[in-house]
Amino acid sequence: MAPLGSNKPKVSIVIVNWNTCDLLKSCLQSVYLETKLDLMEVIVVDNDSTDNSCEMVQSQFPHVKLIRNATNVGFAKATNQGFEASRGEYVLMLNSDTIILEQAIEKTLNFADNNPDAAVVGCKLLCPDGTFQNSCFRFPGLLKIFLTSIYVSQLFKKNYILNWGRYGCHDWSTPQEVDCVMGSFALIRHSVLREIGALDTDYFMYGEETDLCYRLKKAGWKVLYYPDAHVIHIQEGSQKSWADIAWSYRAKQRAILFFLCKWRHMVIAYIGNVLIVCFMIPRLLVWALLDVLTVVTHRSSLRKQRVLKGAGFCFHLRALFQPRLLRQEWSKT
Question: Which stretch of DSSP H or E encloses residue 46?
Fold first, then answer.
């Protein structure tokens, strides 16, 4: 692996890591295998991992620019650190739980060069078994919250109307203009970041790419989906416990409500929270019944994941009486 030259790279690849050593290793191997060295620089921002991630990067990928944080500062803030350290014409937000396939980064760069009105370009994400994984979605709104809360979006994933928020999980074969692309793989023009600013760090994790895409579109730029570049996305690779999964579930909901507070109106966010509460109550009751049946029939303990998800409901309940909570930033700890 030859070191990068002094020339400005075409793309700066920014990867935020938190305790995903094995996934990060596989991701970096695929990046170097599938991308020309003279095109790129790779920046890893580590959020105080305890699994020897930094040591692995230093020993096996010595040409990666490693930034080590003393605490977990969150995804948005860590990504901004990578942006600030980058030199490329483009920056690529890339999750550590991804695998680059068949020169996907180079293909996306060529597509972006041929579409100068696009500020952000996303690619086609695949599950580890090679099946399609939706990576495009609309901006949050009450309709999207309602369809998700009554579960029809999950039951009818391929329906363009009932799963309106994710475009019916449509597997497009041609490029499309969309509201947002997933931050797991998002190629961004560096000049645009200087124009409209980087990620909003009030989003600790989740929602930051939605906010960025919204600001870009308000400024007249396009967000494009490019299906000819393929990347495997393992999903939620840093979540190793039910507590992490429960926190993730709660953070996704809070990110939506925070977005509505910021860009719509506090009243809209409050109504959205009411919808979440109203339709979450029957779900919690069903979970409780299933847990009781499981304990009685199998003599097992309560399923921890349901208890933890139920605990996340407390935030939405409190926000009914303290709407200011909908505006507050939050942290992993």
Answer: strand 40-47
Residue with tokens 């930094």: 54
How are beta strands 180-181 and 136-137 bridged, if at all?
A: antiparallel
| Secondary structure (3-state) at 113 | helix
Averages of pLDDT over each 10 residues, the chain, 333 residues: 61 96 97 94 96 96 97 95 97 97 98 98 96 96 92 90 93 97 97 95 92 97 98 74 66 90 95 91 74 64 56 82 84 54
> Quick one: which of 177, 172, 167 has its CA closest to 117?
177
CA distances from 213 to 13, 207, 259, 293, 326 (A): 18, 10, 12, 45, 21
Tell me the residue type at 134: N
Q: For residue 114, give the DSSP letter.
A: T
> Is the CB of residue 216 less than 8 Å from the CB of residue 120?
yes
Residue 333 within a domain: no
pTM, to two decimals: 0.89
d(CA 222, CA 11): 19
Instruction: Tell me if residue 22 falls in helix, strand or coil.
Output: helix
Range of the domain at 271: 242-327
Number of domains in the chain: 2
* 200 DSSP 8-state letter: -
What is the SS3 assignment for 172? coil
Who contacts 44 (Cβ-Cβ below 8 Å, separation ≥6)?
15, 16, 17, 24, 28, 57, 64, 65, 66, 67
Domain shared by 226 and 275, yes or no: no
Cα atoms found within 13 Å of the Cα of residue 80, Cβ hemisphere only: 17
Within a domain: 2 = no
Same structural domain, 218 and 323: no
Alpha carbons within 13 A on the beta-carbon side of 282 = 6
